Amino acid sequence: MTALLETRGVWQRFGGLIANSDVSISVGRGEIVGLIGPNGAGKSTLFNLIAGVLPPTQGSIIFDGEDVTNLPAAARCQRGIGRTFQVVKSFETMTVIDNVIVGALVRNTVMREARRKAHEVLEFTGLAARADVLASDLVPAEKRRLEVARALATEPKLLLLDEVLTGLTPTEAQTGVALVRKVRETGVTVLMVEHVMEIVMPLVDRAIVLDLGKVLAEGKPSDVVRDPNVIKAYLGDRHAVGA
Amino acid sequence: MDKQFVERRRRDLITAAGLAAVAAIVPLFVKDVYVQNIMVLTLMYAALSQSWNILSGYCGQISLGHALYFGLGAYTTALLFTKFGVLPWFGMIAGGLISAAIAMALGYPCFRLGGHYFAIATIVIAEIGLLLIQNWDWAGAALGIDIPVRGDSWLKFQFTRSKLPYFYFALVLACVAWFVTWWLEDSKWGYWWRAVKDNPQAAESLGVVVFNSKMGAAAVSAFLVAVGGSFYAQFVSYIDPGSVMGFQFSLLMALPAVLGGIGTLWGPMLGAVILIPITELTRSYIGGSGRGVDLIVYGALIVLIALARPEGLVGLFSRRRKEATR
Amino acid sequence: MGLLYGLIAVGLALIFGLMDVVNFAHGEFLMLAMYVTFFLFTFFAIDPLLSAPLAAAALFVLGAAVYLVIVRFAMRAKANVGMVQIFATFGLAIVMRGLAQLFFTADYRSVPNSWLGGKTVSVAGIFLPQPQLFGALVAIAAFGGLYLFINRTDFGRALEATREDPGAVALVGIDKNRVFALGWGLGGALVGLAGAIMATFFYIYPDVGASFALIAYVTVALGGFGSVFGAFAGGIVVGLVEATTALILPPSLKSVGIYAVYLLVVFIRPRGLFGSM
User: Fold this and answer.
1) Band of pLDDT at residue C88, cut at 50, 70 and 90
2) Which residue ranges traverse the bilayer (chain B) (predicted)?
């Protein structure tokens, strides 16, 4: 079976800075894949390339058998790539349900259908009780959840999660982990960027470690954490910061 | 779960129908021509502001150059009628279509501009339009166009004996603008526009093509404003560039929405009902004698409302409503 | 003329750069400065050249007052901050115009027989009107002064710091409101200078600001909002464009050239000539 998402030799340069160099990764259908690495490893850049915020300097991105390298973000969403933002970008003046309806409109052109779909997603993500609250009135953990709900409403094949678990309390993170598992059970493939290893490792099927813009290691979480290169680059870096 | 929402939409519609009905019988009791005149203007500005609100309020693209579309509507109608004998009804539609087309053509480069750059570009474009018409001899240049009036006629949409037909047309126009807004509010366009206003990048990630959304809003908005301009040309039967395309029109269109509540369904109506009579009354009662006092009162009012009620006067009502349901 | 436009615009650019607010009453500030100059001349026979500092001082006070009384509150708005600012300052503009009509009447006035008015100097065979020439010199001096002020004084540095990160500045104990008020004062003072010079060769009437305000916005936007140097350069560009279009098009169309250039520039560079991309 072909992979759902593939990046082939992707480069991204910002002026003289190389954010991604020759990154080739693939994500299979139904997987939960973790994209990890220390700060400045190029995770967010790669993430934005896949979501279509900007085209890569070089290389191509294949989604569901189609070359989407030059498609803008909206077109990629229509093809089945949903995403969240690291810094939450809720529609602040709209209610929670209206936020989600925007996403649901991608596949439902009849308003009643879109509204029904949005309610369904709110139920699924545990936000149903907050449906009529303004997005600006949500607490941070709920805003994260709303991001996920909005992306799910677009009925993605691939869900890109950008540090949705970071900065949450342990209890909030646990509910988050449960939600991601539930999402996968519905048949959605998940690619998640996380900075904190402890949270993601038990959750993901496979981990890809980026460092200095390159793929450093790839494999089962249990193998990856034992990889000496990863320990050096990632944990070493963290220990150094801690000390 | 949806009951509340459906009910609210229905209540809005019933309220609007009720208000329109009340407005429709008012002239039967109010015979004073001066007051009727103010009522016509109030309804017209309500319609204009409602239309402006679509692009600037819902979609968040603050335009301070809508006078361009107002003027285009007025001039298209007047020119077609005086030069080619085309009835104003067709001129109205032609003006609307031309304005919508121009709005989209201008939107093509303008919608890439952000914030103040966009707002200033809209002012500047309207100003260029004004200057071009002022120098266009065929269109009457700075002198403007006198629309020949020969008695009452629905066909030619001109009435000399009574202001009532104008009043009812303005009422219809205001209702149409309101209804279009009401209808669009719960359509995919309405949701897209609000999403684009709040956060274009997030909207794009949810499959909203931001650029197309803005174009759609600009076209609808410009069309309706141009129809308002056509109406105005018939109403005053004399137009010149400054009186239909000046910067003050752009502001008069924006003010009611801002005062009443920008990006809300009822804001422009409420704002126009309060603001336009005040504008007209201060102008005629204080303006004549006091030299500028009308401006002082008017300007101070704008400052006060802007500072005291940034979310618009509609907020007063909705807060009470929220408390009532609690 | 371009340098004068620059001088009018630079105050606007300063305020915008400092706090992201466009002062829609800027033209009215200019109008008031012209009236101040006019009255000082008529009643006290103080030549515009001498009263320019007084006009600047008066406008400094006005600018600071406007910030403290109106803009400070406009910035606190929880909703539609952008719109509130536009309409609060625009409302102020209307009030100022009304007041001018009330107290100064709508008559056109001018400052006759000032030291500079109506005289020309010949520079290399070209006759230049003295007021404009002098205005250009004042403008250059003002820009130089402003440059030194921002880069060399404590207050200038506080201004820069506040504009970069108001939160951090509050932490080190600088009163944000004081800095902003002074910034508005400074913006006012600059337009005050411009007004004093303009008064020597331009008619003075309550609506005079409107004709210059739009050009000032264009000038600022052309250079890139918030860039003081940009406003200076923008002013020169506007002046040149105006002079060039005057040669090609009838006088009534001369502003079209300026507007067209603005559009052209922002379509190519959406943040103006010197704005950061």
Assistant:
1) confident
2) 12-30, 50-72, 84-108, 114-133, 166-184, 215-239, 251-276, 296-317
pLDDT at C211: 73
B287-311 per-position pLDDT tens digit: 554 566 777 777 787 788 777 776 6
B302 Cβ under 8 Å from any chain C Cβ: yes
Full residue range of the structural domain in which residue A236 is found: 30-53+71-242
Best residue in B196, B206, B322 to probe A by mutation, most A CBs within 10 Å?
A: B206
C76 Cβ contact partners less than 8 Å away, ≥ 6 residues apart: none
Domain range annotation of chain C: 2-207
Residues of B in contact with A101 (CB under 8 A): 191
Q: Does pLDDT of C277 surpass 50? A: no
Residue A19 near residue A213 (C-beta atoms within 8 A): yes
DSSP codes of every residue in B3-21: HHHHHHHHHHHHHHHHHHH
User: What CATH number was assigned to the domain covering residues B3-325?
Assistant: 1.10.3470
Q: How far is A98 from chain B (nearest CA, A)?
A: 7
Residues C55 and C196: beta-carbon distance below 8 Å: yes
Give every CB contact of residue A112 below 8 A, 6+ residues apart in sequence: none
Q: What does the DSSP 8-state code read for residue A165?
A: S
Any idea which residue has 């200078």 for tokens? C193
Query: Quick check: C102 and B302 CB within 8 A?
Result: no
Backbone angles phi, psi at B145, to 5 degrees: -125, 135
CA neighbor of C200 nearest in space, from C139, C112, C133: C112
A60 inside domain = no
Q: Is B210 near chain A, with CB under 8 Å?
A: yes
- Torsion, Cα of B188, B192, B194, B200 (10° steps): 170
Domain count, chain A: 1
Q: Is A198 helix (H, G, I), strand (E, B) or coil?
A: helix
Question: In angstroms, rounded to a whole number, what is the distance separating the alpha carbons of residues C214 and C220?
Answer: 10
So where are chain B's domains? 3-325
Q: What global pTM score does this model have?
A: 0.82
Residue of B5, B205, B210 to mutate, interface with A, max A Cβ within 10 Å: B205
Sheet containing A81-83: give its strands across.
A81-83, A158-162, A189-194, A32-36, A206-211, A214-219
CB atoms within 10 A of CB C144: 10
